[in-house]
Amino acid sequence: MPGRLAEVASNVFRVRDTCNVYVLRSGSDAILIDFGAGAALDHLPELGIERVTDVLLTHHHRDQLQGLERAAEAGVQIWVPPVERDLIDDVDRRWQARQIDNDYDLRQDRFSLLDQVAVAGTVPEYRTQRFGGFDVYTLPTPGHTTGSVTYIVEIEARRLAFTGDLLYAPGKVWSLAATQWSYTGVEGQASTHVSCGVLARHEPDLLLPSHGEPIEDVAPALALTRERLQELVGMRMDHHWDLDEWLARPWAPVTTHLLRNRTCLAHSYALLSESGAALLIDWGYDLTAGTPSVSERAARRPLLTSLDALRREYGVDRIEVVVPTHFHDDHVAGIRLLRDVEGVEVWAPESVAPVLEEPLRYDLPCLWFDPVRVDRRLPHGETFAWHEYEITPYHLPGHTLYAAALAFEVDGTRVVATGDQYAREGDKTILNYQYRNRFRIDDFVRSAELLLSLRPEVIVTGHWQPWEVADGELEQLLVDGRRLAELHRELLPDDVDFAAEGFGARIEPYRTELRNGEALEVEVTVRNPFERDETATVGLAVPDGWAAPEPAQARLSGRGEAAVRFNVTPPARPVRRARVAAEITIGDTEFGQQAEALVDVR
């Protein structure tokens, strides 16, 4: 094809393929940004290139990588955005599992490889890594897809930005359809606006998009794109959303030294020390312009964008610690990224730490995909010091059993961080319980009693504005908590009490991954729903072909619990999500298969 190959910067060549593929030459080696159908490999001899060492992909769309198998066959290392790895090297499973009927997920996630290709690994976001002969900085730039990245490379004193499909030309994007992530949503358009603003701060000299021509006049091109997207987003909103201001000033003061990140899906808070350090309370999805309607990894994007404003506006020179109030993904999704990029330590209350470190063990909603290593476990009721502050964690069951309140004083104000325990609608406080989070009937009585003992002047929550506590409000929480408990006892059976959760057993670990020949070890916790003492008989139902272990018995006090353990070795054949179940009998009453667990054998 005439004009298919062109030099766009010193030792940087564009190959026109199903997308623009960029060849970065270093001696007789090269790396590629995106791959298309693989035509770049056919041009290597005329460029004096003997070997391609690495391919870096900006996003998962098929026009970027449909020929990727050619790269794998040539022994090229393939590197992908962290959020989108499953859409590249595990896409076969994706094609089998992706919902098609009654589908409200508008992302173009089906514009992916038809057959998966193994990859070398993921690129390190917010960091520089050496690929071949080049130092490459990976900047998250969601918009065209949730997980898109831009690669920034310095070559002969010029800063080149390989932007994927973030924009096509000054004031233009390659696809608006790709930016509609959910039904009636504007998430991708707002994210593109913000990403263009973030990229502008890096002051690139040249933009090299996946479609379109190189862009030399960078700042006006990004500004025009943002201007048009702001207007487009505004036409779909029932209120004015100033995206420029949102990016520039993500933090709002609660007090002088306590800030709320108003751009997060769930609020994070920064406690500022006079030393220049900051402690974060929760860190989920920073600078979230909205999320798709599904919650898979490829639809959830942790970021660190708002940290720049802490440094720029508040003189913070280091982020030292993050303390999560509970385990839900919108409060913890970004913690591993914080650790990797900023060296932040994770200090977790003792009720939160086990779920962070072993998420597969628990049958709970809103679990983040990866375990989070905890550097320090914080015992409930024991005060710890961080610089000039003293902070005390307290167990705070209700919204979830695995939660804590954090009590401290800042700028002369008594503050308690309560996570998602309470919702606020105007002046009304709502007791925010979810049964599958292991809510217990008296939890909100206990949490009201705790707050009454602490007497906070301000309560900071996970999703609502800071709550300046008025006279009588804490007392009303106790009244509401007691009535909530009474209503549950009035509505649920008196003679068979499986508590608010409604089940007589649970199995841990809930999910297990085994290799052929490994034994499955599970613990079944069983509850006696009767007031009288009883013997529980627990059996383990296993798939056909597995050898079922002998039932176990445990003596239980009235309304008491006990744990029994089982070992079983699955047959030596691969299986995904094999089901085992705990079948329980309490005294003479059979309750059947009350809990399940899932087993993968590889």
Written description of the protein model:
- With 602 residues, the protein is of the alpha+beta class.
- The protein has 13 helices and 35 strands.
- It starts with a strand and ends with a strand.
- The model has no long low-confidence stretch (mean pLDDT 96).
- α5 (187-201) runs antiparallel to α6.
- Helix content is 19%, strand content 32%.
- Strands 1-2-3-4-5-6-7 form a seven-stranded mixed beta sheet, with no helix packed on it.
Radius of gyration: 27 Å
**Nearest-integer average pLDDT:** 96
Alpha-carbon distance between the termini? 46 Å
Q: Which term fits the overall shape?
A: globular
Jot down its keywords.
19% helix; seven-stranded mixed β-sheet; globular; 13 helices; alpha+beta; 32% strand; 602 residues
Structure described in brief:
This protein has 602 residues and is α+β, with helices and mostly antiparallel strands. Helix content is 19%, strand content 32%.
Secondary-structure topology with pairs:
Layout: E1 5-9, E2 12-16, E3 20-26, E4 29-33, E5 51-56, H1 62-65, H2 68-73, E6 77-80, H3 86-89, H4 91-97, E7 121-122, E8 128-131, E9 134-140, E10 149-155, E11 158-164, H5 187-201, E12 206-209, H6 218-236, H7 243-248, E13 251-255, E14 258-261, E15 268-272, E16 277-281, H8 307-314, E17 318-323, H9 329-332, H10 335-342, E18 345-349, H11 353-357, E19 376-378, E20 384-386, E21 389-395, E22 404-410, E23 413-417, E24 422-425, E25 428-431, H12 443-454, E26 458-460, E27 467-468, H13 473-491, E28 505-508, E29 511-514, E30 520-527, E31 534-541, E32 552-556, E33 561-568, E34 575-586, E35 589-601
Parallel strand pairs: 4-5, 5-6, 6-7, 11-12, 16-17, 17-18, 18-19, 23-26, 29-35
Antiparallel strand pairs: 1-2, 2-3, 3-4, 8-9, 9-10, 10-11, 13-14, 14-15, 15-16, 20-21, 21-22, 22-23, 24-25, 26-27, 28-30, 30-33, 31-32, 31-34, 34-35
